[in-house]
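My convention is simple: the sequence line spells out the residues, with the fold written below as integer tokens. I include a record here:
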Amino acid sequence: MAEEVVLYDTTLRDGTQQAGISLSVGDKIRIARRLVEFGIPLVEGGWPGSNPKDMAFFERAPAAVDPARLAVFGATRRAGADVERDPQVAALLKPGVPTVTVVGKASAFQATRVLGTDREENLRMIADTVAHLRARGRTVVFDAEHFFDGYAEDPGYAQECLRVAARAGARWLVLCDTNGGSLPSAVARATARALEAVREVAPAAGLGIHTHNDSGLAVANSLAAVEAGARLVQGTVNGYGERCGNADLCQLLPTLQLKMGFLAVPEESLAGLVHLARFVAEVTNLPLSDSHPYVGVNAFTHKGGLHASGMARDRRAYEHIPPERVGAQRRVLASELAGQASLSAALGHLGLGRASLARLLSQIKEREHLGYRYEDAEASLELLALDQEGAPSPFAVAHYRVVVDGPGRRAEATAEVRVGEGLAHAAAFGNGPVAALDAALRKALAGFFPHLARIHLVDYRVRVIDGTEGASARVRVWAESTDGVARWRTVGVSTDVVAASLEALVDAFRYGLARVAEVEGAEPASG
């Protein structure tokens, strides 16, 4: 049976210290509930002694989230204070949460220069606080702040901080790389020595690890500590946290479970990892990087022709795990770097032959030289293939014109479209040239394709392809559209941003109408 590693999430406390993150109490409860449902054993809710928001969280959270899965965070008593009368320590008991995490200095330098106390008083602060909480029935997690820096300066004192906490009854001693500057080899050595020191006084106590990413090594350092004996791992979803962030649970969890053989969450939960990462990204309003390991949309995306060819033979050729294990999807992109294997994988449902694929590949390379990019415009790619095969288009734009009436004024567009033998003309206003053109096209086509009303633009981006050309440079317009069920992406290129936008819009409408026709067998109305 696989050995267990306990995951301890600190997104709601340490993660919120990242610049740009500000969560309401409701947001924190939503994330806590999702983490618990996913299978995270311990979710740190915040520091009630530091701010009203975290106090409010612990007042409301136990009714919405299993209190046994929550942890409250705070610090050891103040230097020279009586632990029985320390209001910050009292605040840790008020929520009634069974797990309490207390942070204390595990570095002589930090104790004397930052806290302004002496080495012995720092040890008493740790012992008094842990013993006080244990006497009141709490399970105590001791975060040994600056442990690795402290160990490098004075190994004996750093280890004594752990022994003191263990003797006082701490269940977990968490080794913190607070400044994020340690190397995996140093973390492994210090963790092994710490485990020996703790077992001398408290064989039942376990070690944990808490790392920051200032050197880009938070995940590597956490894994090194686990290999050396740590069995509780602290981290945040998507690696959120102060400065460069904390260890990323979305990288740690699948690595621990799929590559190192530990049990961290139920297997069925692991398949929901991508959804968890995206949910938390949505609530925090921070976009998830496309290249994020395991959970980014590019994590299992293949673009190069050699890669796609290898994947066609055996999917293990260029994938370190099957993407479905974490709930991800495999994508094969078409681009100037692609070969016929890439196109066949991306457009296999069209049944294109080798000759057609070869012609299409040549056309893609020519068009990408002009500035098109099809790797993230799959709808335009499919339409390009269909056009090459002579598939009829449901409509064509015969003429259009856009007029903008001065700065900050609304735009007017006219569009003339041809559908079969029919011809329609419409004019419309918009709060910009693209919006006006979109409205005019819809108005002209509405009589032929009433189901066009289902299709909406949800994202629109413009990029200058060659900035050295100034105002005459070509631009690439990328658009994402939806019919309420699926989403698709299109691209247009021109030296005129309106013309490029029209190309992307027309492709979006054509693809969306093809979807409706495929599902419902819809034909254009007589107009």
